[in-house]
Write a structure and sequence with these properties.
Chain lengths: 95, 512
């Protein structure tokens, strides 16, 4: 229930286009987008987060990735990573 | 116990080992499905739903997502709070950036590839975009030329300082050269032996045509410039033999016209002044000026009927040869001269003296030119290897920017048409390319009108001074020389004293 509330709150924010929760294997657990987009995002973002995380840790092993924002022309993809899961939100702030 | 192995103990068997070749390639993976566990069939919707529901009930999942959720919300709210891409002040005009402090940086140095280095005595920018720089190399020191000295001059691509793009092979080393502004493939060059040579870069390193020795100058050709004409094949050259010769590059066997710089207008070569610089501005095609070894600038009219009428008037400019002479591209009635230890700006109408001049410098000035984009900026180079940038609207007493380009003397200088790139040539065959800061190479607001006012003021001051001077009676040459000497020595003395004082001050500070 708590999760539902959190996700509903996020979804209601201005400009939020989609939410995906992905596990460390790349399996989407929860999503508000259609299946094919979800799978695409899940797979691609998984690789990106792995790379970003290893970059941060290679530079300083005591550091770790806490958040990743990919700003593009059309929207922003925000990724909050965790040991086992990622929370991905796609937002278009000017909407 | 431990056994120490020596190489001699073990019989080494040498085998050549070669692993099988393995090709690897980097590529992305197109995810179609995530990494489902073995017991779940991704195609079976029921199984996948069951898996997902199981995960959602997991405690660690709940904790993780709650935590991530709050972090995420924060960032989402951030995005909604401020649009970081908003354009501010869209309606307002572009505010002019405050000009950055005057500075220049060295971009490249093009060195003479030969063992025996020659002086870079002439430079010319490629007229189309200035991506190439032609440099003339020669040795002007009397009897210093050796048999091994190369006669070649080079054209450099400014992006490649390692190797010249093209070699020009004259029969005698080039003192000066000039790219044809109307045809960037062709150049003319003036030689040490008085000949003129014409190149077409599409036709190789040898000149396409060379003037005949008998009809050429009798002394090194110090300056050669392309003229503006219908055919685009006319050029003229000046030499210390006292002549200015006009040429049509299609027929270099003899000059099309001759002018002897005899001020008594009798065409007497023995009395002629040696020409060492030449000036021609296409905006004033009927006039041209010659700077002489004797320090006199001669203003001439190209269209005059008789040779006598060609020489219009003279300006007593410097105590030594006039090494550079150029009209201001924005105010052609004003021209810049350089010689002895000063640079001077003249107004055509005032013959007696320059309207503005610099202080006596510590070193001899060897070349100068105006900035093609800023009417109040000009550049000078000196024998101590310093390049000075003068902005007369900003400071008249000293250069706005002074750069030590190299340790040896600088002999030539040319600014590229965009006003930002400056090339200067040194005695050891190095041509240095510098980029000037935008403040000194972009036209400032009101610059032209301010400059005009400054010049008008200097001119009127000058004419007033002359009236006074004329009343006192003209100085004899000896008096002029002694005055110049006095001025020079007083400047040197003050500078030396200043340096001594500074050193004393530093020593005093150190001992404390």
């Amino acid at each position: 229930m708590l999760i539902e509330e959190t996700l509903k709150r996020i979804q209601s924010q201005k400009g939020v286009q989609g939410i995906i929760i992905v596990n460390s294997e790349g399996i989407p657990i929860k999503t508000t987008l259609d299946n094919s987009s979800t799978v695409q995002y899940a797979g691609l973002i998984h690789q990106l987060v792995m790379k970003a995380r290893s970059t941060v840790r290679d530079i300083d092993p005591q550091n770790d990735l806490t958040f990743l924002r990919v700003r593009s022309k059309k929207n922003e993809i925000m990724i909050a990573p965790d040991k086992d899961y990622f929370l991905i939100v796609i937002q278009n702030p000017s909407d | 116990g431990k056994k120490n192995y020596n190489y001699s103990d073990v019989d080494c068997l040498c085998l050549q080992v070669n692993t099988e070749r393995f090709e690897s390639d980097s590529c992305g993976i197109n995810h179609v499905e995530g990494g489902w566990p073995k017991d779940v069939n991704p195609q079976e919707v029921e199984q996948t739903i069951r898996f997902r529901k199981k995960v959602e009930k997991d405690e660690s999942y709940i904790n993780s997502i709650l935590q991530l959720g709050s972090v995420m919300e924060h960032c989402i709210r951030q995005n909604n709070a401020v649009d970081i891409y908003q354009v501010y002040f869209e309606e307002e005009e572009e505010v002019e950036e405050a000009p950055d402090a005057p500075s220049a940086k060295t971009i490249n140095v093009f060195r003479d590839p030969n063992e025996v280095k020659r002086t870079v005595t002439g430079l010319s920018w490629h007229p189309d975009g200035g991506r190439k720089l032609a440099a003339a190399y020669s040795c002007l020191e009397f009897q210093k030329t050796s048999k091994d000295m190369s006669l070649d001059s080079y054209i450099w691509d400014i992006e490649n300082p390692n190797r010249p793009e093209m070699t020009l092979k004259p029969a005698s080393s080039l003192i000066c050269l000039d790219y044809n502004p109307k045809d960037p493939h062709t150049l003319v060059g003036g030689c040490y032996n008085g000949q003129i040579a014409y190149w077409d870069t599409r036709r190789g390193s040898q000149p396409v045509e060379v003037s005949s020795v008998e009809q050429s100058h009798r002394d090194p050709v110090y300056k050669i410039i392309w003229l503006q004409s219908k055919t685009g094949t006319d050029t003229f050259s000046a030499s210390t033999d006292g002549q200015v010769l006009w040429w049509d590059v299609r027929r270099l066997s003899e000059p099309t016209e001759r002018l002897v710089l005899d001020l008594s207008r009798e065409g007497n070569l023995d009395r002629a002044l040696g020409a060492i610089s030449l000036e021609f501005e296409s905006t004033m095609p009927t006039k041209f000026m010659v700077g002489t070894e004797q320090g006199v600038v001669v203003s001439c009219n190209r269209k005059a009927k008789t040779p006598a009428e060609k020489i219009v008037c003279t300006y007593d400019s410097h105590h030594g040869p006039v090494y550079a002479l150029q009209r201001n591209p924005f105010f052609p009635k004003n021209f810049l001269t350089v010689g002895d230890w000063t640079a001077r700006i003249w107004s055509e109408d005032i013959k007696e003296s320059s309207i503005m001049w610099t202080r006596y410098q510590m070193s001899y000035l060897t070349d100068a030119c105006w900035s093609p984009v800023r009417p109040s900026v000009f550049f000078t180079v000196k024998m101590d290897g310093v390049l000075d940038v003068w902005d007369i609207l900003f400071k008249q007493n000293e250069p706005t920017l002074s750069l030590k380009v190299c340790d040896e003397a600088l002999y030539s200088l040319r600014v590229q048409d965009n006003g930002r790139l400056v090339a200067c040539g040194s005695q050891q065959g190095g041509a240095t390319l510098l980029e000037i800061s935008s403040g000194l190479s972009t036209l400032q607001k009101n610059e032209k009108s301010l400059e005009l006012r400054l010049k008008e003021r200097s001119r009127s001051e000058q004419s007033r001074e002359e009236d006074v001077g004329r009343e006192d009676g003209e100085d004899s040459p000896d008096q002029l020389i002694s005055r110049a000497q006095k001025d020079f020595y007083s400047v040197v003395e003050t500078e030396l004293r200043r340096r001594r004082d500074r050193e004393d001050q530093e020593n005093r500070v150190r001992t404390h």
